Each structure stands twice: as C-alpha cells, then as structure tokens.
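Changelog note: in this version the structure field was regenerated for every chain. One regenerated record is shown below for reference.
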Amino acid sequence: MAQDSAEVIAAQLATLTAVVNNAEMDPASRRTAVDSILLVAPGSDAANAARAMLPAINEAERIASIGKQWAYRFDADKMSGESMAIASVASSNTISLDFPYAGAQRGRIGLRNHPRWGRDVIFSIERGQIPCSSWDGCSVKVRFDDEKPFIVGASRAEDGSTEAVFLRGYASLERKIRASKKMLIEVNIYHGGSPIFEFDIDGFDPQRMKPRG
C-alpha cells in the first residue's frame, strides 16, 4: 500500500511539475501547481524546483496583467448612426471630500473618439465640483512617469457638468499615454483642495479605439 501511495504521489508531482514548467500555460494555473507541490511534498526536489520557478511565474503574471485595467467600449451616436469609442481607466488611489460629496471616490481618465465631436481626453470625478470657467476654462497639472510635471489647459463640459473637464491637446496627451506607465493629475476641487490622482496607464491599446461604422 505504501508503495502504491508513493507511486500516486510521484505521478501527481510529475503532472504538476509539467504544468509549472510549461511557459505556455496561464500563470494562475502554474502558480496553483506550485502551491500544490509545496503542499504535497514540501521538502522534495520537486518543491525546490517549483520554488525556483516562482520569479518567472511572477513575471508572467505581471506581463499578462498589463493593460487589463483599461476598459474599452463602443456607444452608438444616434444622430450620425456611427459608433464612438471610449477607453477609460480609474485612478489607483481614492480621495474623500466633505459633505455632500463624502465617501471614498476615484478619478477617471477617458479617451473618446466621437464621430461628430472628434477626439477628447476627459478627466472626471464621481462626485464634487471642478471649478472651470465657461469663458477661459481652467487647468490641471499632469506628470508622466518620472518626467517633470506640466500644466494642461482644460474646458468645462458643455452640458454644465461639474464632475468632468476636457483636457486640451489630445494628440500630445495620447502619445504620452501610449508611451508611459504612470500618470498623475493634480486638479483643483471646490472645497476639496488640489488632490493628486494616480493612474496606472500601462498597456493602453489605441487599436481598440478604431471607429466602427
């Protein structure tokens, strides 16, 4: 019976080791296989070999996660009969404002390709007021990766919404977003100071915003 049990465990370890060493397998399955090996035979050569594969699995997980934070969608523009593309990402940090906008909330960056209104970069918050004059607009401070911060002009939404502003200079901002991993936006919020929103923008895919007829 002991020999049979040992043979079963050896067969399990061989199967699990094959999963761990298969770079074409998804990283989550490989990590599960490592955990199973460490549970079944923690002091074995197979366990030591599995531990040695963890850095490679961690890197594979990192690569697989790039760009997953971005959300892409197409909405219909009823007037033109065409589609507008929107890519957006939420800030990795939250802020809290005073009543009546209390509660943790995130900022959001959106890139929009509209068949009639063109291309826009939009910054928005969930609740609150971003002061922005209808006459001369406003500005936000932006920083990409470890570069120096710079000022970007902005305009208020035409519908009078106070939760969003349209950042000027779509082409240059879109190029920066494509080439960068991190974006910081400092914005003035009414009775909320000038909080900094942090965005993981790595992996933005402009191909997924190509217009549809």
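Spot check on this record: The longest strand covers residues 82-90. Residues 2-21 form the longest helix (20 residues).
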